[in-house]
Amino acid sequence: MEIRINDFGSLNGQKIYTYTLENNNGMRLTCTNLGCIVTEILAPDRNGMFENIVLGFNNVEDYIRNKTYFGALIGRVAGRIGQGKFELEGKVYQLPKNEGNNHLHGGYQGLHERVWDAEEIKTDSAVGIRFSYVSPDGEEGYPGNVRLQVTYLLNNDNQWIFTCKGYTDQKTLLNITNHSYFNLSGNAKKDILNHELTLKSQRYLELDKQFIPTGKISHVEGSVFDFRNSRKILDGKLSQNGQNILVGNGYDHPFLLDDHFNEEIILRDHETGRKLIVETNQPCVVVYTGNQIGGEYQTAEGVKAKKYLALCLETQGLPDAIHHSHFPSIIIGPEDYYEAKTIYTFTIDD
Ligand code: FUC
User: Fold this and answer.
1) How far is residue 348's CA from residue 345's CA, in Å, rounded to a whole number?
2) Contacts of 123 (CB under 8 A, 6+ apart)
3) What's the rounded Cα separation, in Å, for the pair 115 and 127?
4) Is residue 103 annotated as part of the catalytic site, yes or no?
5) If we measure between CA atoms, which residue out of 237, 269, 231, 270 comes closest to residue 252?
6) Nearest-CA neighbor of 179 among 290, 28, 97?
7) Contact residues for 324 (Cβ-Cβ < 8 A; gap 6+)
8) pTM above the 0.85 mark?
9) CA 170, CA 165: separation in Å to the nearest integer?
10) 341 bridge partner residues
11) Bridge partners (DSSP) listed for residue 159
12) Partner residues linked to 127 by β-bridges
């Protein structure tokens, strides 16, 4: 196992590096100190061929220019906060409205655009990086000095283990995710419409026209939101369900997870045999099928941006939780701390 460090450019005078973690099976995960972005994951197909299975860019400028959040750490609060406004301890906070009338993914310069400190980790069974950052009181409108520690480990079981710990000196909101866009075909050769997804989830959140949860929790039974026995992403594209049409003919929905650390999320590409298992302590996964990907940019492999080029499996708390008292709370205070953990296992279908 080894860690290789390379120059990746700079941002406002701060040096940006890539850290390539490689395990004994030849699997590789590359990340950077810019926004804890995962830029590349090389995983084998059933013939042992290693290809990149996430979307990324090959330079810092593209990451800053294109607001796609490829592979980035998202926070302080992932997802949307209606009108960017909330009340905490009797005080009203107005966050930047960076998407229409709402706040999205931590604001204009969320955690994905911050330069983090990085420290190498080497153990008997894993290599990794521990990223740290202190988000000052008032950053992007949020209260409290928040100390964050993000760890990415790659072990010899072909697992990427992502943990995020957060401590605050004042009551605040915290809901962090990693925004990797997966495409198991390898080097984004094909779109993800034939990828098959299995979810241990009976319920999902209904969205309004601005993609904010209405508060209604719907049962998946009898709809294309039922992934309990697996289904193709294509079903969501073809669906006449108003919820699929609303988000651009696909999925951009939070699914409540019924189980944890028990293969609750599985993504498969039958053609290459690649299988990704995602397990988490977080209450939900936002399944976003790349309905908004497009524009004048290309991925690191030179693939032109287009709809359904990849999909995100964002493990997190429920979006807009601060406005819905029946959603699990995302408030943390100085007396407690935040800890999110997600394990991604890259394997091959039998
Ligand atoms: C996901 C979606 C959003 C947005 C963003 C880039 O988290 O929920 O709709 O497009 O990614």
Assistant:
1) 10
2) none
3) 21
4) no
5) 237
6) 290
7) 213, 215, 318
8) yes
9) 16
10) 163
11) 345
12) 122, 154
Straight-line distance from the first to the last Cα atom of the chain, in angstroms, rounded to the nearest whole number: 26
Q: Which amino acid is at 196?
A: E
Question: Looking at ligand 1, which residue's alpha carbon is closest to its atom 7?
Answer: 79
Name the strand (E) or helix (H) holding 43.
strand 38-44
Q: Could you identify the atom of ligand 1 that is nearest to the CA of residue 67?
A: 6
The Cα–Cα gap between 133 and 76 comes to: 12
Judge if the beta carbon of residue 320 lies within 6 A of ligand 1.
no
Q: Indicate the SS3 state at residue 42.
A: strand
Report how far ligand 1's centroid is from the alpha carbon of 243 (Å). 15
Compute the distance from residue 114 Cα to the ligand 1 centre, in Å.
19
- How many Å apart are CA 105 and CA 240, to the nearest integer? 28
- Atom number in ligand 1 closest to CA 105: 7
Rounded to an integer, what distance in angstroms lies between the CA atom of residue 152 and that of residue 1?
14
Alpha helix ranges (H) inside the chain: 60-65, 234-238, 242-246
d(CA 231, CA 235): 7
User: Could you read off the pLDDT of 111-147 as tens digits, one per residue?
Assistant: 999 999 999 999 999 999 999 999 999 999 999 999 9
Q: Which residues contact 251 (CB under 8 A, 6 or more apart)?
A: 225, 233, 236, 244, 287, 288, 289, 291
Report the separation in Å between the CA atom of 48 and the middle of ligand 1, taken as the mean of its atom positions: 32
Dihedral class, residue 297 (left if φ above 0, else alpha if ψ from -120 to 50, else beta): beta
pLDDT single digits (tens) 164-194: 999 999 999 999 999 999 999 999 999 999 9
Structure tokens at 85: 């406004």
Atom of ligand 1 at shortest distance to CA of 211? 9
Neighbours of 49 (CB within 10 A): 12
Please indicate whether residue 292, judged by its CB atom, sits closer than 6 Å to ligand 1: yes
| Per-residue DSSP letter, 301 | T
For ligand 1, say whether the CB of 66 is within 6 Å of any of its atoms: no
Q: What mean pLDDT do residues 325-347 have?
A: 98
